[in-house]
Design brief:
By secondary structure, this protein is α/β, with parallel strands linked by helices. The chain is built from 11 helices and 7 strands.
């Protein structure tokens, strides 16, 4: 069985006071790991102290220690993005781990994290699951950013995870190759929110490992003063991107409503309501399917022939259910409100509103859902 290659990424900027201790403790912790080939990549963002010199000296001691630099400081998110791409393309990493330079992430968790990822896509070092904790001595600003930020993230995005802002995370190659954007919405700490959300949207198997997060003992914190505002900006942008697809589908739905109403009223001249309704619904659904495929969900990768046939089969089955639903809805409406063009069109309109929610859930999660990435790549 092939031994998987792990690359632990440590971004640095003026970390000369702590980087040697961090690397020594880290290599001591991973020295006993036998079922993975573990490498450490220090990505330095043009430190003005002798951080790079310290790492270069330690490279003589540790043959699995690598140093990559950038000419100017671009921010934590940008540094991680560059380092991840380097780890994937140049180092052929199977697993990438994000790790802080200041020992706030304890090396003792690397081994259990790798044990967990044998059966997972992503393992998050979590401070907010049972067994995890944050430093008691943290200031109000840090606690607000971390604790409240996670509550807001869970409210706006998904309550599935407890620690959206963790910077201690192991991710498999296939997932990173699938979700890494050209550029994160934030070049700072809020990249963590976006990356976890992208991994979640890719249908990754994500688990949280409880960790005790400790505050740095040496050096100066690099947390920007505008982190709260930046995090909120990223969260609302991610939420808007999710709603954008629904708004597009609603626009498509309006065209479908117009077609359904037009055909229903034309056919109503020569047949009873319950016969005219199915033809109108089928016409509207076909219109919506074509436009959603080319407009709302066009960013979904092109499917293979088998997937296209499968999706079309699901579409036919769902269409049949929607015909029955709309017909029954009209039947109930006429039963309680009576016949008449105005009443019947009002009933159909309300059915379309309810149907739009059902359509979006079915389209996005079943017919046009993104295919889950494999665990290993």
């Amino acid at each position: 069985m092939r031994i998987e290659k792990v690359v632990i990424i440590i971004p640095t900027y003026n970390e000369a006071q702590v980087i040697e201790e961090t690397l020594c403790e880290l290599f001591q912790a991973i020295s006993s790991i036998e079922d993975f080939e573990v490498h450490v990549l220090v990505f330095d963002s043009a430190s003005k102290d002798n951080t790079q010199a310290v790492v270069e000296r330690l490279q003589e001691k540790y043959d699995r220690l690598l140093l990559k630099t950038e000419p100017t400081k671009t921010g934590l998110g940008a540094a991680y993005l560059q380092a991840m791409r380097f780890a994937l393309t140049e180092l052929s990493a199977d697993i990438v781990i994000e790790f802080d330079a200041d020992l706030s992430h304890q090396p003792k968790y690397i081994a259990p994290m790798l044990e967990k990822i044998k059966n997972q896509d992503v393992v998050v070092g979590s401070r907010y699951v049972p067994g995890g904790c944050i430093p008691k001595e943290w200031g109000v600003h840090r606690k607000i950013l971390s604790v409240c930020g996670n509550y807001i993230a869970r409210f706006l995005l998904t309550p599935k995870y407890k620690d959206f802002t963790s910077g201690f995370r192991a991710t498999r190659r296939a997932l990173l190759e699938r979700v890494l954007p050209k550029q994160f919405l934030s070049n700072q700490y809020a990249y963590k929110l976006e990356l976890l959300w992208l991994l979640h949207k890719s249908r990754a198997n994500i688990c949280e490992l409880p960790i005790e997060f400790i505050d740095r003992q040496k050096g100066v914190s690099k947390l920007p003063a505008n982190s709260i505002i930046d995090s909120l900006r990223v969260l609302f942008t991610l939420r808007f991107h999710e709603l954008k697809a629904y708004f597009k589908m609603c626009l498509v739905g309006l065209s479908g409503f117009a077609i359904q109403g037009l055909i229903y009223n034309i056919l109503r001249q020569c047949m009873p309501p319950l016969m005219a309704a199915p033809f109108a619904v089928v016409a509207a659904i076909i219109n919506n399917f074509i436009l959603n495929n080319r407009f709302t969900f066009k960013q979904i990768p092109k499917a293979h022939r088998y997937e296209k046939i499968k999706s079309f089969g699901l579409f036919i089955g769902y269409s049949a259910l929607m015909v029955l639903f709309q017909s029954y809805w009209l039947h109930l409406g006429i039963k309680y409100l009576g016949e008449g063009y105005l009443k019947e069109n009002m009933i159909i309109f309300m059915g379309m509103v309810v149907g739009s929610f059902l359509n979006y859930m079915t389209y996005s999660r079943l017919i046009w859902r993104e295919k889950k990435a494999p665990i290993s790549g």
